[in-house]
Amino acid sequence: MKLLLLFLLSSMTVPDSGRYVFFANDEKIGFEEFHSEDGRLVSHLELKMGGFGQIVVDIEFRSKRGILDTYILNAKTPRGTQYLKVERIGKRAIARFSTGTVTETETLALPNIYVKVVDNNVISTLNSFVQRFTADSEVVIVPQALKLVTIKRIEDGLGELICDGKSRVVRKLTISIDNRVREELYFVGDTLAFVYQPLGKIQISLNERFRLPKRKPNYKRKKFSVKSGDVKIKGEVDLPKKTKPKAMVMLIAGSGRVDRHELGVFDDLADCLTASGYAVARYDKRGVGKSGGKYEDLSLNDLIEDAVSVAEFLKKKYKGLPLIIFGHSEGGMFSFIVAKRSDANGVIAMAAPCKRLTELLVEQLVRKGLIDSSEADSVGELIDSLVDSLARSENVKGMVKLPIGGALPAKWLKEHALLDPDTLVDGWNGRTLLIAGSEDLHVPPNDVVRFKELLEKNGADVQFLVLEGQTHFFEDRDSLCSTVIEWLEELKVGERSGTEAKDH
């Protein structure tokens, strides 16, 4: 039977008492307090579950000689009160559910997935337990499918996963339930996203191949600082070491607090592009990394102006070198504007959605299984209500909390709310490569198709490619790099200009 709530079941090895704090990205969303004595453990959990509202869970766990005797769970949710009581009776057990169902069983599965953050440090645990009622009348708790896993963030984009004493460096955890991918966890900032799922068969796959094989440095790196308004944008240019560059590829990151590395995606792209004779420029977003400004106060227009400032700097500094604007996700959305204003030679837009942000957010929640499709309209109305109020406000600043959890810069959200995505390609009819990943839960290929249609109406030379098996961050970098390089070579952008670029 499915219980659509979060089960937090502690084993007999927990401390006598403690407090856990839960975060969704950087926002505190709840806590759990527990204490135990004489074989009795009591836990109180309060969570603010975005569009689901507040959930309060009380758990009581009793044991005799370390063996389960009684397990009681009460959860108050917006959907009503969920109740579960398991009592051992001789060789079997009786499970009573809030639906009134009574089950006599020898095995009862109570899986759960959750991420705990203790004292602001990522200490993530993923557990799945079965209560097995054995032939000798004893009840033991054994791991099912997953063993205790500890996850620690090493740095942005990388984490260490420890299971059975073995350590692996990973970039991403993919959570699947009943063979359907529900969530992808990335090591960003100081916390991981909070994950809660219904019952089901749980699988976790690890992306261990987090970087391309290390090559000897094949580039010369030049730092730069560009003024954009009253803010300095800091970045770097990688130039091929032994040859004159064929063209300059400028990378624009996606949404969120991401820097010039873009979770390692841009590192790998820069490596393979310079090895193939292309110069690569990238920079830290305003308010992130070494760039100036406050992330909390940035707007969509700020991001566009910053990108244009960098592009104009590159055109002037590396005069005569063809310029390709390469944007990922949100960066791909406004890459056409940057290309037009900087008179670029082409655009590569990777996982760039031609869709309003409000629609995109709700659809992502449904695809990840975080809300039911039947809840999409109500959650969408909550988001629409928020952005409508922002749109009517003249002066907005700082971060604004979303009804689905998390927070975003208010000015950025307001400008996205007022944006008509169809206008993003206005005036651009240059050569364009659109790339999508077949397994992208954030921006599926269908969300990119609209750009192709609009560009074709503009008379642009556009190619749209869907890379099989790729997600939003394109973990198969070999496939991504070969696709990009093949397109660049076919363009022969290096032959467009009769003047050679100066090596600065």
Secondary structure layout:
Blueprint: E1 17-24, E2 27-37, E3 40-48, E4 54-64, E5 67-77, E6 80-89, E7 92-97, E8 102-105, E9 107-111, E10 117-118, E11 121-122, E12 124-126, E13 128-133, E14 139-143, E15 149-155, E16 158-163, E17 166-170, E18 172-177, E19 180-186, E20 202-207, E21 219-228, E22 231-240, E23 248-252, H1 265-275, E24 279-283, H2 300-317, E25 323-328, H3 330-333, H4 335-342, E26 346-350, H5 357-367, H6 376-392, E27 399-401, E28 407-409, H7 410-417, E29 431-437, H8 449-458, E30 462-467, H9 477-491
Parallel strand pairs: 23-24, 23-25, 25-26, 26-29, 29-30
Antiparallel strand pairs: 1-2, 2-3, 3-4, 4-5, 5-6, 6-7, 7-8, 9-13, 10-11, 12-15, 13-14, 15-16, 16-17, 18-19, 18-20, 21-22, 22-24, 27-28
Helix pairs in contact: 1-9, 2-4, 5-6, 6-7
Provide a concise account of the structure shown:
By secondary structure, the protein is α+β, with helices and mostly antiparallel strands. It is built from nine helices and 30 strands.
